[in-house]
Amino acid sequence: MRQNETIIRVRYIATDQMGVVHHANYFAWFEIGREEYFRELGMSYKYLEQNGIFMPIVEAYCKFKSPARYDDQLRIITRLNLLQEVKLGFQYDIIEVEKNTPIAYGHTIQGLVDKNGKPLVLRKQNPFLWKFLQENVFEKKD
């Protein structure tokens, strides 16, 4: 399964009074992971939207393992683990780089909709992208 790894640094604004990253930031980091995942495939959210494909989150989950703190470097590992005609699913692992400590893991599921919010079938809306994802995301089994 193809994955993307993105390194970020925790900014002061992301922390609370205890110096711990506020939980809402993890979902923003998941989004960074998704954006970079698509960029590594040679496309961006902008490209998808210009082609009439929008991906609202319909499910999100995060399990916190260890606190992230100001100035930590974090590795966001992102994998596309679900490819269906009307939705995509991603898995994420967030690792503190210096100590190689698991910080959090989670998943999101994105519906595929048009600019009016109506569900679309990716295979029909954009056969090129559908085939490209099928061929480039999952390892071929012999």
Q: What is the CATH architecture term?
A: Roll
Strand content is 25-35%
Task: Find the CATH topology.
Answer: Thiol Ester Dehydrase, Chain A
Which percent range fits the helix content? 25-40%
Q: In which order are the strands of the major sheet placed? A: 1-3-4-5-2
In DSSP terms (H or I, runs of 4 or more residues), the helix count works out at 4
Poorly predicted ranges: none
In N-to-C order, the SSE pattern is EHHEEEEHH
Mind summarizing the main beta sheet? 5 strands, antiparallel
User: Could you state the CATH homologous superfamily?
Assistant: Hotdog Thioesterase
Number of DSSP strand runs: 5
Measure the end-to-end span.
Answer: 14 Å
Number of domains: 1
Can you tell me about this structure?
With 142 residues, the protein is of the alpha+beta class. It has a single domain, classed as Hotdog Thioesterase (Thiol Ester Dehydrase, Chain A, Roll), CATH 3.10.129. 27% of the residues lie in helices and 34% in strands. The chain contains four helices and five strands; from the N terminus they run βααββββαα. The chain has helices spanning 24-40, 45-50, 122-125, 127-137; strands at residues 3-9, 57-64, 73-84, 87-96, 101-111. Strand 3 (73-84) and strand 4 (87-96) form a beta hairpin. The longest helix is centred in the N-terminal third of the chain and has 17 residues, at 24-40.
Briefly summarize what is shown.
The chain has helices at 24-40, 45-50, 122-125, 127-137, and strands at residues 3-9, 57-64, 73-84, 87-96, 101-111. With 142 residues, the chain is of the alpha+beta class.
